[in-house]
Amino acid sequence: MYYKASLGTSARWITFLTTLLLISIPLIILANAGTAEQPAILFSLLLPVLIPLICFVYRVTGYELDSKQILVKRLVGDFSVPLNEIDSIEVNPNAMKRSFRTFGNGGLFGFYGRFRNSVYGPYRAFVTDPNNSIVLKQQNAVIILSPDEPQKFAKKLAEKLSKQNN
Q1: Helix and strand element counts for the chain (H, E)
Q2: pTM for the full model?
Q3: How confident is the model over 71-117, as pLDDT tens digits?
């Protein structure tokens, strides 16, 4: 079963403002191109294009739930969470509050990568809308997802986990 993952308000604003900033950088550089060296100009023009492109292809597009795994769908490099490794499920719209990024993306097309907060410690996030957060606890890890319908997703996942345990 497939569950959509739409960008929440915070990710939409961060994406819009960051993209606006990144578009303005090459324009400013081109306007002042006579004062910089050629390789520096090329690098300065490519970097603002590469950042959103990389974030776009790794963004979460949805979640696929089957009898063996949750597949975090992305344009490049889907991520699998085996159901037999999930110990508990918690729907928590505040799960990412007061988190800081240790390695990942903090809002450009979503929040994904490695984060940490005082509640869960280190965790991996594959989130498009923090208000739809579902926390999956494993023996040695925590993963946070954000399907558009978190209650429905959590209920279906709980059903699949109970079938697996019987």
Answers
A1: 3, 10
A2: 0.87
A3: 999 999 999 999 999 999 999 999 999 999 999 999 999 999 999 99
- The span from the CA of 154 to the CA of 67, in Å, is 14
Between helix 9-31 and helix 38-57 the angle, nearest 10°, is 160
Question: Can you tell me which residue has the tokens 């558009």?
Answer: 148
Buried b (16+ CB within 10 A) or exposed e, 121-136: eebbbbbbbbebbbbb
DSSP state of 135: E
The domain segmentation of the chain, as residue ranges, is 1-166
Distance CA 95, CA 43 (A): 38
User: Measuring CA to CA, which residue among 125, 122, 130, 102 is closest to residue 112?
Assistant: 125
pLDDT tens-digit map of 43-72: 777 888 888 899 999 999 999 999 899 999
Q: Give the CA dihedral 124, 129, 134, 135, nearest 10 degrees.
A: 30
Task: Give CA torsion, residues 114, 120, 121, 127, to 10 deg.
Answer: 10
- Whether the CB-CB separation of 28 and 21 falls below 8 Å is answered with no
Three-class DSSP category at 68: coil
